[in-house]
Structure formats: structure tokens, C-alpha cells
Amino acid sequence: MPSIRRGTGWIFLGIALLLHLFTVYAFWHQPDRLAAFTVLPIWVWGGIGLMASVMAFYFLRAPLPLAMTTVWALTLLAGMDEARVLAHFGKQAPQPGVPATHLGEPVVRVLTLNCAGMRFGDPANDIAAWKPDVVLLQDIHPHQLRRFADILYGGKGNFRAHFTRDGGIGVVTRWKIHREIGNPAMRGQQVTVELPCGRQIELVNVYLAPAVTNLRLWRRDAWREHRINRVIHHTEAATMLQLLEQTTRFPNTPVILGGDFNAPATDPVHRRLASHFNNTFTAAGTGWGNTFQRRFPILRIDHVYATRHFTPVRCAVAVTRQSDHRMVVTDLIFP
After folding, report:
1. Mapping DSSP to helix (H, G, I), strand (E, B) and coil, where does residue 114 land?
2. Which of 3, 89, 279, 332 would bridge with 310, disulfide CB 3.0–4.6 Å?
3. Where are the alpha helices (DSSP H) in 171-251?
4. What is the pLDDT of residue 1?
5. Residues 65-102 as b or e (16 or more Cβ within 10 Å = b)
6. Whole-angstrom Cα distance, residue 230 to residue 76?
7. Which residues are paired to 135 by β-bridges?
8. Rounded CA separation 54/66 (Å)
9. Cβ-contact 297, 323 below 8 angstroms
10. Which residues contact 238 (CB under 8 A, 6 or more apart)?
11. What are the distances in angstroms from CA 302 to CA 98, 119, 178, 206, 325?
12. Quick count: other Cβ atoms within 10 Å of Cβ 61?
């Protein structure tokens, strides 16, 4: 019996160690062939690894399983997207109503929401409560945008709609829309808005291809579907950046880019933006940042990015019962 007990303990310890090595490799290098593994949060695999470490300690009663538990805990602390807000302890979150100034500076408030085809109701009033300057909407019927503009800005707002293969998207803003760049093949839209002071900002509304939900990881086709989906996301993101470069002086142009990326915050598609954009939640977010699914949000797939012309000062996720996504609200200084 002692030998069986020790053998079982070593098996659990081996599982914890091998899973740790595989998880670190997969999330650090993010190879496309392992997209099915990394589409789940790292804490899912960390939970399994911690459980295996605890079981190893139960059977072995030795220091090595405790060391493995510590390694897993540190890995999760460093690798969990949800843990990044710990660095923002004490930061102020955006509040409903007219956005407060930051250190005397006025802010630009941006809100993004996937409206889920309005299947859960109309989120216009929930959005209006935040008094945003710019609203990026995905999975919405274009004919509904005028009503959004009327509710948000008392009939004085502006909007532009764009059709994608999987539903309409739209930009609604209190400012004048100077131009719209059309590209029927692009899963997103790009508009130029002019502030009252005469300065212009480029807005890019993102709605990448729907995520793959096949989690039957014991089947080869699940791994293939996730790999193909990631390649599609990379292609779509590259197309949007290429259009920015062709139609503006990017990266010298102020750009706010946001929407539904249908990819977790650790996905490589976000690394493509890192050289020119700040993720506003990563820079200034507070609270639980995951946006999907609304009732039990385990993934942060809705994002707001801004070029270095802006300084993110406040960002948080807000709940609306009128969608299966949560809203991202961010305040930016545009000096």
C-alpha cells in the first residue's frame, strides 16, 4: 500500500509538472496549432495543475508538491489577464453620467458593446447613462442607429452603419463625422470625426470573425477549426491596419480602435496592435475586465485601443441586461 500511495503521488506530480511546461510554452509562444488550448483562460489549466499538485502532496506528504503548487500560483499571477488590474490598485473607475475631468483635463469617453442582434432587448438607455462621446456597436441592425443617436444625443448625434458578413456594426458620436472609409470586404469600419476644436480623430470599429466554440479537444477537427479561426482574425486585423496606413498618416494619426475581437486578451491578434496602440483596460482598467458571457464572464474579448496620442485614465466593464456581452467604458485624455 505505501508503494501504491507513493506511485499515485508521483503520477499526480508528473501531471502537474508536464501540464505546467506545456501551458507555459503554449501561452508564451502562442503557436497557431495550439489555439484550441489557449482560447481557454490560463486559470482553467492552472486550476487543473493546482489540483494535481495538491493531490500529489496528499499522497506524498513531501516538499516537492508544495514547490510545484507555488510555481503554479506564481505562473497564474504572472499569466492571468485578470490579474493585471492589481497594478491599478487605487485607480478611479469611470462613473455613469457626464465624465469627470482628470487632473483638470477634459476627457473623451468611449464605449463599445456587442448588441447581440438586440435579442436581449434595447441597450440604448443603458449606454446613454454613461454620456459617451463615441459609441462603437457590433451585431446591430443598421436601421436602428438613428434611434441610438437620437436617444444618446437628443437628435443631434451622428452615425454611420456598415454591413459585415455576420451582422451590422455602427459608430454613433456626438461629433461631426467628416468622412467614412468604405471597404465591403473588411469586417470593421473606419470613420473620421471632427471635434468642436477642429481636431480630427480616426475611429475604427472592429467586429472580427465569430469565435469557434468547439471545445471537444479530444478531436482533431476542434484543433483545426481554432487554428483556421486565428488565421482569419490575423488577416482581418492586418486588413484594417493596412487601410489605416493607406488612408491616413498612421501611425502619426490619432486613432481609437475598439469593438468585439472574438478572441481572448492573450490571443496574438492583440500583439499585432501593441506597437502603436495602448489597450485602455490594460493601461487603466479597474475591476473584473472580462466581457463575455454577461452572466459569468470568463473572457475579455471586447476591447478599446488608442494610439499614443491619448492617455487612458479610467476604464471599466459595465453590465447591461440587454446583451450577452458587457460594455467597455474608457476615459481618455487627448491633449
Report:
1. strand
2. 332
3. 220-247
4. 65
5. beebbebbeebbeebbbbebbeebeeeebbeeeebeeb
6. 24
7. 111, 172
8. 8
9. no
10. 272
11. 23, 18, 26, 9, 8
12. 12
| SS3 annotation, 292-305 | ECCCCCCECCEEEE
Task: Decide: helix, strand or coil at residue 99.
Answer: coil
Distance CA 272, CA 234 (A): 8
The type of residue at 284 is A
CB neighbourhood size of 210 (10 A): 14
Question: What's the DSSP call for residue 155?
Answer: T
258, 264, 268, 274: CA torsion to nearest 10: 40
**What local confidence, expressed as pLDDT, does residue 284 receive?**
95
> Which set of grid coordinates corresponds to residue 229?
479561426
161 Cα distance to chain centroid = 22
Grid coordinates of 272: 499585432
CA torsion, points 218, 220, 223, 228, in degrees to nearest 10? -160
**Angstrom distance (rounded) from CA 297 to CA 310:** 28
Residue 271 DSSP SS3? helix
> What's the length of the chain?
335
pLDDT in tens, 47-85: 999 999 999 999 998 899 999 999 999 999 999 999 888
Domains present along the chain, CATH in parentheses: 2-79 (no CATH), 88-333 (3.60.10.10)
- Are the C-beta atoms of 186 and 236 separated by less than 8 Å? yes
CA dihedral 39, 40, 41, 47 (to 10 degrees): -150
pTM over 0.85: yes
Peptide bond into 190 cis (omega under 30): no
* pLDDT computed for residue 106 by the predictor: 94
285 DSSP 8-state letter: B
Cα gap 157→177, rounded to integer Å? 10
Q: Which residues contact 234 (CB under 8 A, 6 or more apart)?
A: 268, 269, 272
pLDDT digits (tens, 9 = 90+) for 247-287: 999 999 999 999 999 999 999 999 999 999 999 999 999 99
